[in-house]
């Protein structure tokens, strides 16, 4: 069954916990966005895991170097999954995977900004990562002409476990899942909604139906 991941791009632990409390019944993975972790430090990871021990807590570190060290920090703080950049060297990814194995946790490779996301996803899957995030970042999404269809098409042909992040919403989440994505990552579609709980519930129902 495909999972729903909420990406929390708010900037304080208090706001993140408030949002998570509203949407937790409908999501499988709670992602702490990079700006949130940079602003609050690893304490936000611990606070979220303490509040939602039954959920996977995803620390979006976007590690580019010191893979084992940074992953170890996040896992010790309570993270279940951490991200390493696809553009990082294989040694960095391997280091993070080593830390993950020591803690019984997982590494996700984030392909944001990578020229050939499909090729890199196939390469890094062999290094022992949980899954690969086919990711168009906020800056790319705001570029004229951007369409999530590019990620959906990539997921359909990648042949390895992936998530899709890059403007997932109720209008496209069915296509995201039908393309084979194991995880649909929704950020603004949930935290930007007037009623985040009902937005998350609608996404959850669409994913289960797909």
UniProtKB/TrEMBL annotation:
Every Orotidine 5'-phosphate decarboxylase domain range: 3-203
Key word Lyase present: yes
Entry-linked CDD domains: KGPDC_HPS
InterPro entries in UniProt: 3-hexulose-6-phosphate_synth (IPR017553), Aldolase_TIM (IPR013785), HPS/KGPDC (IPR041710), OMPdeCOase_dom (IPR001754), RibuloseP-bd_barrel (IPR011060)
Keywords: Carbohydrate metabolism, Lyase
Reactions performed catalytically: D-ribulose 5-phosphate + formaldehyde = D-arabino-hex-3-ulose 6-phosphate
One Pfam entry name: OMPdecase
GO biological process: 'de novo' pyrimidine nucleobase biosynthetic process; L-ascorbic acid catabolic process
Any one GO molecular function term: 3-dehydro-L-gulonate-6-phosphate decarboxylase activity
Keyword Cell cycle: no
SMART domains reported for this sequence: OMPdecase (SM00934)
Family, per entry: Belongs to the HPS/KGPDC family. HPS subfamily.
PANTHER family in the record: 3-KETO-L-GULONATE-6-PHOSPHATE DECARBOXYLASE SGBH-RELATED
Protein name: 3-hexulose-6-phosphate synthase
Organism of derivation: Dyadobacter jiangsuensis
């Amino acid at each position: 069954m495909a999972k729903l991941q909420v990406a929390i791009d708010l900037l304080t632990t208090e706001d993140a916990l408030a949002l998570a409390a509203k949407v937790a019944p409908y999501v499988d993975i709670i992602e702490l966005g990079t700006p949130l972790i940079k602003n609050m430090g690893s304490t936000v990871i611990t606070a979220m895991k303490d509040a939602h021990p039954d959920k996977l807590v995803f620390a979006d570190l976007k590690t580019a170097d010191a893979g084992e060290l940074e992953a170890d920090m996040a896992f010790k703080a309570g993270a279940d999954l951490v991200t390493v950049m696809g553009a990082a060297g294989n040694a960095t990814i391997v280091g993070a995977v080593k830390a993950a194995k020591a803690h019984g946790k997982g590494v996700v490779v984030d392909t944001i900004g990578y020229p050939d996301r499909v090729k890199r996803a196939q390469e890094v899957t062999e290094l022992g990562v949980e899954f690969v995030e086919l990711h168009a970042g906020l800056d790319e999404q705001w570029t004229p002409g951007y369409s999530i269809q590019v990620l959906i098409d990539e997921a359909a042909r990648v042949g390895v476990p992936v998530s899709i992040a890059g403007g997932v919403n109720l209008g496209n989440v069915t296509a995201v899942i039908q393309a084979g994505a194991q995880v649909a990552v929704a950020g603004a579609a949930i935290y930007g909604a007037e009623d985040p709980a009902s937005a998350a519930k609608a996404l959850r129902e669409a994913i289960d139906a797909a």
